[in-house]
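User: Could you check the structure of this?
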Amino acid sequence: MAEKKEKSRPKEKAVQAELNIGMIGHVDHGKTSLTQALTGKWTDTHSEELKRGISIRLGYADVTFYKCKCNGAYINKETCPECGKKAEKLRTVSFVDAPGHETLMTTMLSGAALMHGAVLVIAANESCPQPQTMEHLMALKTAGVKNIIVAQNKIDLVERKKAIENMKAIREFLEKNGYKDVPIVPVAAHFGTNLDLLIEAIEKHIPTPKFDLGRPLLMYCARSFDINKPGEKPKNLKGGVVGGSILRGKVKLKDKVVITPGIDGNPVETGVVSLNCASGPIKEAHAGGLIAIGTKIDPSITNNDKMRGQVIGIPGKVPDSTKNIKMEVQPIERLVEKTSAEMKTNETIVLTIGTMPAIGTVGSYANGKIEVFLNNPVVIEKGQKIALSRKESTRWRLVAFGVVQ
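Assistant: Sure, the predicted structure tokens are below.
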């Protein structure tokens, strides 16, 4: 008797994530491991990352959260592992896994520009706060990210008493920096311990923002790449891809977009030939989670993140690029390490403008106001917050943020 063929389940329609959640914290506290535990994806894929065992670039992973109708558990699977029944779908989110190493702070600041909420990962087996724990929390404040969750990771490595002492130190650290009533969830990423409680905290304390979809498209590019395989025939070559997050508005297939400041200060106009999110191709993308736009641009221009920091919008609706910025400066108060925000004329500083790290020279600094001349053009808007870093010893330190005048 012939075997009865099992009906294949129809493939679900691709759905763009609703928001971006940062995975931040000190180096080696388990951010990438926790991202994998939540999403099933290991975000360190670059060869140097695999060799050194740390995140170097921003990592991305999407996941859909569900809630079991039987026992109320929050899970990251469509079917509840306890009762075996189909769970209620809640929402899809994008995780942005930021590097924690001190030398990669500008990369983390670029990622902060995309975050609508964050999970601050703090290891239970180390004192709190560690240098980049403080640095990353300051970056969130600079970016205006208010909704955060703390994942107290590696609780499997400490005794109960030590874990409680560490949690008290975390609470004190958060409150001193203006983050009160933040949920702290003890987890062990490698064993999947308390992931249900972490997902519940994310669902309850990091809401989806209300985006302005009626305004013209404005998108920050965080990654760009060439999707063609080596040796591909010219007739089969595909245009370059830019990836990132839409801040406002939306974009459809076949739309015309402009990428600015472009190449050598010359904006690049192109057509949208494809739109993709983590779950597959979509016909329209909107403000919210991470997306990738396939273009008609020569892929050699977009490979290896060459377009990182570009602003994507509708032709004629994007502000002109500039190499001169005037800002009001607000120094960052440090509770752990003291550093100076007093910038001197002709000093070289690094500005993080959206997802664009830019090098500039201080033209003047007085009475809380600064003028900076950049090496390359950038796109800015009035009222935009910009992170300012200055060199201390051998590293760039976040010392202040400026508000564009």
